[in-house]
Structure formats: structure tokens, C-alpha cells
Design goal:
The chain is α+β, with helices and mostly antiparallel strands. It starts with 8 loop residues before the first strand and ends with a helix.
């Protein structure tokens, strides 16, 4: 592979909604540049990028895939990301490795939920953005789509080429001010684009206003700067499957997309404070892992790393995060779909993979300063399933498999709920979790039973009490047990958690036994008092007590701590808290009323409605998580499968009194049934 400088790299992530054609674009890039001798096709399961069995079965990307091609002396590293809302994690993590997000929009389907979501996330993170309108050969009204994009994302969205001859070719409207297109006037598009670009440079703006025209050749550097700063979002047209506009897209990326030198700079936060990372190949090596995966053929773990500074060779020694011992990465690879190409060296700005490193997404690899590099924010996985291995002998194996998937997917979590004792997996949606379980069956030969998990309620208090006393006294013939404690209890600030304050003056309780009271209280906090859910946001003061010179011991004060906590808790107006999720539902306009009514029936509080081009609306609401268990199937029923939704944890708030009593009664019956079993 040829040697490239940092300024020669163009790092892009292909993002957008499912079926917009991101993977088809990736396959077309490989074919147009001669990397492959046949055009991959998702529909015939011959894609070079959707190479996993699960992707072929489902007909969509479930993880990101990488490719690299040389165009006009520049190396374009592209990350093809999933577009289904359930697989948002790999799409977001890919943003950490690039300077530019290329949002692919289907000309026929128009603006969809992940179009908006990924455009906004890329902008918030600081990346430049390019829009590709794909499938122009389907003869849609592209002018209406462009107008919709401008309404949603602003007039910064401007075409740099236009479809012509029913989508069989594209016409450049940046360098060219003449000609005709399916879209409309090339001259008008040229003028609008030039005016938007010169706004990024005051000198050129003045010259343009004075002369009324400016040579596009003088705008090359300005265009890259404008893309980086977000003052322009270029729109390009193509038909990836017909390979129309693909070469023009690649030329545009090579010429105008920001390089690592020009693009978004990450920051490193360490002991020396926060500093902007200079993409200098001469500095110590610094990189960040943004993708972790196991090769389906060899089961070898690979860490995909964006190099932010310095260079690396296969015989180098690098440090992972704060580890004291350095490690050798062994071979360095460039990835192209399922293929791994060994390289001798890589420099700042490049994207590489290394095998068999013990890393997680977000880990910083370095030979100099240690620290953290912020990742784009990920949504909290709120869709959950409780699972149980079909064979008890498989319990440890299931835990190991889940740990592997947790490493690879930043939006997948697995834990054993301390209050419900259930093994619970958390993801973005039903499809996300069902795909994980399907892969676990195929790869590890492990099957599990699933059910809806118990809701993770929390217990807390509204009132205050003082001088609550409990005495633990036990005589067993030999040495006895004795502990007497007095506590006060009050609410702590929401989110502050549990706080223990030793307010004893003198030696009413020996110093050695005071931590025992705290330990006993903490054990009860995990078990709860009202309905068996963890207690949060309480402040406990140990105010008095008594110690026996012979019978007092650690276990006695732990028991006294537990019992006095329960006694005081019930005197402080105890309540249950429930998780509230922020829900965004995207549906056809004619279904808005039905959806709003359904959300209201789930104790939902509406927060707004946004109209999208293409006959869609986004409804925002906050709804108790307990009311969302069957929402996936209900939404599908109401909209005939045309609706989608996403939810993230918003906050916890008090459960209504009538609902609280139902939860407490159900918990009591369950406990009684378990004791009698």
C-alpha cells in the first residue's frame, strides 16, 4: 500500500436510515475503484460489507464495516454503518473515527427518523456533514426532497451536482453554471452554492458582492473549511446500484472533504488537564478504539483504532489506557469488509485494526500522555428482556457470551438486577436484542428463555424522623449479641444517593462498631423496604447507642443497622419511584391522533410534535417505562408496520398512589409465594 501523509486521508462515516443505500454505496465504491471485480448486492446476499451470516439472513447491516480506497492520490477510509434504529450504537461509535458524516437519504423514501437523528448527532459532535441523495433513478421529485432537507437542517444544505436524464447521470453545478437537469436550473443551483460558500470567507464575500462572480477554483480550501465549520452541507445525487454519481462523489470527497489536518480536532483530558490533539505524525503515538469485533471465521478479537497523533509499526510497544505494562500490537491491518490486509506502518489520521488486544470501545492507546478522549454520547438502552439459560449448565457460558457482546456494542448491556435477581439484557429495541440472542445461538450454541423483566423501581422517602431506636439482643447460652442504635433519617437531594453521617459525640458506640451500622444499613438499602427495590437518596445520621463490653460485636451492629433503618424508613413517608423515558415516535401523519391517544392511555405526557417532509410526524412524550412493555407490537398494529420509535431514560419520579399500592401488594404476594414454595 502506498505511503500517505496525514493530509492525504479522508475519513467518512456512511450514516442514515435503513435501506437508504449506505451499504450499496460502499459496494459501489469498491467496484468503481477496482477493489472488487464484481458489484456486491445486499439483495442477493453478495455484499462485500454485509458479510456476517446474521446480516445476510436479515437483509440489513447490524454492525459497521470498513473499507479503504485510493482516489486522486488520497486515501478514503469509509465506515459503513447500520441504519436500523435498533443498531444505533455502531453508527454513533463510527463518528469517533472520522471527520465527515455522509448521510445517505433515499430519494424514494425521503427523510426518515435516522436521517434526522444521525445528522443532528454528527453536528453536535462537531463533524462536517455531506448528504447523498441515493436512488435518483427511481424518478422521484428530488427538488421537493431538497426543500425538505433545507427546511429541517437549514439553507446550509446546497446541491453541488444535480441528477439529469431521469437519473442516468449527474451534472456538476459547482464548477459548471450551464446545462439542464431533472432537478431544475443548473445556473440557479450554482449561484446558491457559490453564495453559501463565500459566506465562510469575508474577503471572498466582498469580492463576490462587488463582481457578482468568482472563480470556483479559488474556493477549494474555503469549501473544506465551510464543511468543517458547518456553514455548508453539500448535497450530491447518485444511484449507487447503477453506479451513477459514485465517481463524482469520490472525487468530491477527495478534493473537498476535510482531512484530519483541517477537520474536527479531538481533545485529550489527562493529569495535565485538557489539550487539543494535534494530528502530527512526528508526535508520540495516540489513538482511540472506536470498534471492537470478533472475526466470524477465526473468532480472533480485533480493535479498530483511529490514529490521532504519531505513527505505529507492527513491532511497536503501546500502552492501553492506564495500564502499567506496555503491549505489542503485533500485525497492523487495514480492513476491507471481511478482508484484512497487513501493513507495516500507519500514521496520524489513518484508521487501522490490531488483533488480540484487551480493549473496549473508547480506550485510548498511546506511547506518551494518557487520558480520555470523549466519545459521542450514546443513548441509554432502555428496552430489556429477562433471560434464563435453558440448561443450568450453560449459565457461565451465557455470561461469557454476553460479556463479549457488551464489549462490541456500546448500546448493549447485561447485568443481574440486584433487586429482582433476574439476568437482564438491555438494548435499543426488540430487534436489537433478538439479533444478539440469535447470534449467541449461532456462535456459541446457547439458547435462553426470555420474558419481560421486572421494572427497576426505586424506593425513597419524603419525610424526616429523629431518634429512632432499635436494640438487638440475643442470648445463646454462650457469648451473646448486643447492639443498641439511634438514628435520624431525612431525604437526600435527588440523585445524591445514600449518605451516612456519624453524629455521635463521645463513646456511646465504640468507634470500631460504627462502620458496622453503616454496613448493615447498606445491605438493607439493596433489598429495599416497601416492595423489595433498592433505596435511593436518603441521609442517615447515627446519633446515639450503646455497646456491651462482652456481647457487642460486628454482626450485632449490622443487624441493628438493618432493623433500625427499616423502622425509620417506614416513618418517613416512603414512596416508590419509577423510571420515566423520553419517547420519540415517528409515524405517518394520518396516525398521529391514534398514537397520541395511545400514549395518553399509558400515562404519557406529550411534549411536542414535529412535522417531517414526506408525510411523517415525530411525536415526543415522557412515559413511565412500566407502560412501554408491549409498545413495539402496539405501534406496529396501529401503523401497519410504518411507525418506529426510540426511547431513552429521562428521570425517576414518584409512582401515583393507587399504582404504588398495586406494586407493593404484588411484591408481597410474590414474596409469600416464594417463602411457601
Amino acid at each position: 500500500m502506498a505511503k500517505y501523509t496525514t493530509a492525504d486521508f479522508r475519513n467518512i462515516a456512511l450514516v442514515g436510515h435503513q435501506s437508504a443505500g449506505k451499504t450499496s454505496l460502499g459496494d459501489a465504491i469498491l467496484h468503481v475503484t477496482g477493489q472488487t471485480n464484481r458489484l456486491g448486492d445486499v439483495n442477493t446476499k453478495s455484499s462485500h460489507l454485509d458479510f456476517m451470516d446474521e446480516e445476510k439472513t436479515r437483509g440489513c447491516s447490524i454492525d459497521s464495516a470498513l473499507l479503504s480506497v485510493e482516489v486522486k492520490g488520497k486515501l478514503i477510509n469509509a465506515v459503513d454503518t447500520p441504519g436500523a434504529p435498533d443498531f444505533l450504537g455502531p453508527a454513533i461509535s463510527a463518528l469517533a473515527g472520522v471527520e465527515t458524516a455522509v448521510c445517505v437519504v433515499s430519494a424514494s423514501a425521503g427523510i426518515e427518523v435516522n436521517t434526522r437523528r444521525m445528522m443532528e448527532r454528527a453536528a453536535t459532535y462537531g463533524l462536517g456533514r455531506i448528504i447523498v441523495i441515493n436512488k435518483v433513478d427511481s424518478e422521484p421529485d428530488t427538488s421537493e426532497l431538497v426543500q425538505g432537507l433545507q427546511e429541517l437542517f437549514g439553507d446550509v444544505c446546497q446541491p453541488v451536482n444535480l441528477p439529469a436524464d431521469k437519473g442516468s447521470r449527474v451534472v456538476d453545478c459547482f464548477q459548471n453554471a450551464e446545462g439542464s437537469s431533472d432537478f431544475g436550473s443548473v445556473a440557479d443551483a450554482h449561484t446558491a452554492l457559490i453564495e453559501r460558500i463565500v459566506e465562510a470567507d469575508e474577503t471572498l464575500m466582498e469580492e463576490y458582492l462587488e463582481k457578482g462572480e468568482i472563480d470556483p477554483a479559488r474556493l477549494v480550501g474555503v469549501l473544506s473549511k465551510a464543511i468543517t465549520g458547518g456553514s455548508i452541507v453539500p448535497i450530491l445525487f447518485m444511484s449507487a446500484r447503477q453506479e451513477v454519481g459514485v465517481k463524482e462523489f469520490l472525487d468530491f470527497v477527495a478534493d473537498y472533504a476535510p482531512s484530519p489536518v483541517e477537520g474536527f480536532r479531538r481533545t485529550l483530558t489527562g493529569e495535565a488537564g485538557e489539550k487539543v490533539i494535534e494530528p502530527d505524525a512526528g508526535k508520540p503515538f495516540l489513538g482511540q478504539v472506536f470498534k471492537v469485533f470478533s472475526d466470524p471465521r477465526s473468532n480472533i478479537k480485533f480493535s479498530v483504532c483511529r490514529i490521532h497523533a504519531g505513527s505505529i509499526r507492527s513491532d511497536a510497544s503501546i500502552t492501553i489506557g492506564q495500564e502499567r505494562k506496555a503491549t505489542r500490537p503485533g500485525q497492523i491491518y487495514k480492513l476491507c469488509g471481511a478482508d484484512h490486509l497487513e501493513v507495516d506502518e500507519a500514521v496520524a489520521g489513518d484508521i487501522i485494526a490490531m488483533a488480540k488486544l484487551d480493549t473496549a470501545i473508547g480506550d485510548v492507546l498511546h506511547t506518551g500522555d494518557d487520558g480520555t478522549i470523549p466519545l459521542p454520547p450514546f443513548p441509554t438502552p432502555m428496552f430489556a428482556l429477562a433471560i434464563e439459560p435453558k440448561s443450568r449448565a450453560d449459565a457461565d457460558k451465557v455470561s461469557g457470551a454476553l460479556a463479549k457482546f457488551t464489549e462490541e456494542d456500546p448500546c448493549f448491556k447485561a447485568d443481574r438486577d440486584p433487586s429482582t435477581k433476574e439476568l437482564v439484557i438491555h438494548g435499543i429495541g426488540d430487534l436489537h436484542l433478538r439479533t444478539i440472542l440469535s447470534r449467541m445461538k449461532d456462535i456459541f450454541k446457547l439458547e435462553v428463555d426470555t420474558k419481560a423483566p421486572k421494572i427497576p423501581y426505586r424506593e425513597t422517602i419524603l419525610g424526616t424522623t429523629r431518634d429512632v431506636e432499635y436494640t438487638h439482643k440475643k442470648q445463646t447460652g454462650g457469648a451473646g449479641q448486643f447492639a443498641r442504635v439511634f438514628i435520624g433519617m431525612e431525604p437526600n437531594e435527588r440523585g445524591a444517593g445514600y449518605e451516612f453521617i456519624d453524629d455521635i459525640f463521645g463513646g456511646a458506640i465504640d468507634q470500631a462498631f460504627r462502620p458496622s451500622v453503616d454496613k448493615g444499613i447498606q445491605s438493607q438499602i439493596k433489598e429495599g423496604v416497601l416492595a423489595g427495590y433498592p433505596v435511593v437518596d436518603v441521609k442517615v445520621r447515627l446519633t446515639d447507642g450503646k455497646t456491651h463490653p462482652v456481647d457487642s460485636k460486628d454482626i450485632a451492629f449490622q443487624i441493628a443497622g438493618r432493623e433500625v433503618f427499616k423502622k425509620a424508613f417506614l416513618q418517613c413517608k416512603p414512596i416508590l419511584l419509577e423510571p420515566i423515558v423520553h419517547v420519540e415516535v415517528t409515524v405517518p401523519n394520518d396516525k398521529v391522533g391514534d398514537i397520541q391517544g395511545d400514549l395518553a392511555s399509558r400515562r404519557g405526557r406529550p411534549e411536542g410534535q414535529q412535522m417531517l417532509p414526506g408525510g411523517l410526524s415525530v411525536i415526543s412524550a415522557r412515559v413511565p417505562l412500566a407502560e412501554m412493555a408491549d409498545y413495539h407490537s402496539r405501534l406496529s398494529s396501529i401503523t401497519g408496520g410504518q411507525g418506529s420509535y426510540a426511547m431513552e431514560l429521562s428521570h425517576y419520579e414518584a409512582v401515583p398512589g393507587n399504582v404504588q399500592q398495586q406494586i407493593i401488594d404484588a411484591a408481597r404476594k410474590e414474596k409469600e409465594a416464594a417463602q411457601s414454595a
